């Protein structure tokens, strides 16, 4: 396809983004050309400034433009409850539920012996530091139910065994709205295992 | 949602793009943060430069970074055949078919008495100029089958009546792959009208 050079380049950048194919990238690039001069200037600017200004919270590892993120510096949040996640992106999902009032800890990865990723390669020592400073903290492990997630969960459970920490993990089970007939075996098995008593 | 300021702004720009909702905009913005510094710089730059460098071809009105676009300046294209379109974006679609070897003319709009858009408000006089310089040109009208498209088609047909121009329009009909059972009445009616004899 014979696009003018700048348009071709713009399309190629949109194509680098997740879920954007050739056709969508063309559409987005053309829509960008239709931005006003001010908008284009501003959009261009924020791509650079966001790369420069956004770093990681020195406590929890969340994305922030400050030394300490808004969640860690919010006095209304329960610092004794720490939700442990693989990736900061999950924080946006949790925050959207609007019901979690604790704090987070971003591991930036999971233990994976297959890929030569050990406990020292992820953001774990700072979690242990945080836990040790608290009186009776609660950890909620929100790691994905894969071999790596399980390995990391087990490791954290083991190293914090005698440290007076309550540890839980997210429940596995049937996603809301799902048809039980169409659920995969493993999810159904987990939903049985994690079944919740509703009457004695 | 409490995004850091730069991230919120980046998300808001992605949301201005067609077909990008809140969730996708967040995904694209975060993916942009994961670009390398060079990529972010370059992406940012091309958004500005494309706005600055891309103008319209002085002959046909196509998007170009030159005075005359690649198609109009290509000696292998048949200058006697002009495909008339509403919007330059259609050119990319036609070019992808790879079978059209003529040139284009972008009207930048359609005649619409309802919206007070007359023949003088669209890029028509330059089309007549082009036609008048050619010996026996062929015009292919590729305008959408709406009231405005029909009005523009009729107007062009009328003003070029005695100018030795062959004029055709794209055929209406069944899109390839469609189920005839599910076609709308109007398309089916047009497909009947535009039916093609395949044997005498």
Short description:
Two copies of one chain form a homodimer. With 200 residues, chain A is α/β, with parallel strands linked by helices. Helices cover 40% and strands 10% of the residues of chain A.
Topology (elements, then pairings):
Two copies of one chain form a homodimer.
Chain A: H1 5-15, H2 22-33, H3 37-53, E1 55-56, E2 63-64, E3 81-85, H4 89-97, E4 103-106, H5 125-133, E5 138-141, H6 147-159, E6 166-169, H7 185-193
Parallel strand pairs in A: 3-4, 3-5, 5-6
Antiparallel strand pairs in A: 1-2
Oligomeric state, counting identical vs distinct chains: homodimer
Count of separate DSSP helical elements of chain A = 7
Low-confidence stretches of chain A: none
CATH topology of the largest domain in chain A: Dna Topoisomerase Vi A Subunit, Chain: A, domain 2
Count of spatially separate domains of chain A: 2
Listing every helix as H and every strand as E from the N terminus to the C terminus, the arrangement of chain A reads: HHHEEEHEHEHEH
Largest sheet of chain A: 4 strands, parallel
Q: Explain this structure to me?
A:
The structure is a homodimer of 200-residue chains. In chain A, strand 5, helix 6 and strand 6 form a beta-alpha-beta unit. The first copy, chain A, has two domains: 49 residues, Orthogonal Bundle (Helicase, Ruva Protein, domain 3); 114 residues, Dna Topoisomerase Vi A Subunit, Chain: A, domain 2. In chain A, the strands form two sheets. The first copy, chain A, has a four-stranded parallel sheet with strand order 4-3-5-6, with no helix packed on it. A two-stranded antiparallel sheet of chain A has the order 1-2. With 200 residues, the first copy, chain A, is of the alpha/beta class. In chain A, helix 1 packs across helix 2. Helices cover 40% and strands 10% of the residues of chain A. At the A-B interface, helix 1, helix 2, helix 3, strand 2 and helix 4 of A face helix 1, helix 2, helix 3, strand 2 and helix 4 of B.
């Amino acid at each position: 396809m014979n696009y003018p050079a700048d348009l071709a380049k713009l399309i190629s950048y949109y194509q680098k983004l997740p879920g954007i194919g050739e056709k969508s990238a063309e559409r987005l690039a053309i829509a960008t050309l239709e931005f006003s001069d001010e908008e284009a200037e501003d959009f261009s600017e924020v791509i650079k400034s966001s790369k420069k200004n956004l770093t990681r919270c020195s406590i929890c590892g969340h994305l922030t433009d400050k030394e300490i993120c808004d969640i860690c510096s919010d006095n209304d949040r329960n610092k004794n409850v720490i939700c442990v996640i693989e990736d900061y992106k999950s924080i946006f999902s949790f925050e959207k539920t609007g019901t979690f009032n604790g704090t987070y800890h971003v591991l930036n990865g999971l233990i994976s012996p297959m890929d030569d990723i050990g406990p020292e390669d992820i953001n774990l020592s700072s979690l242990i530091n945080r836990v040790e400073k608290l009186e009776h903290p609660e950890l909620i492990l929100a790691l994905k139910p894969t071999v790596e997630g399980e390995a990391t969960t087990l490791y954290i459970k083991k190293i914090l065994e005698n440290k007076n920490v309550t540890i839980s993990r997210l429940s596995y089970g049937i996603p809301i709205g799902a048809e039980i007939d169409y659920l995969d075996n493993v999810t159904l098995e987990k939903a049985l295992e994690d079944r919740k008593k509703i009457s004695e």
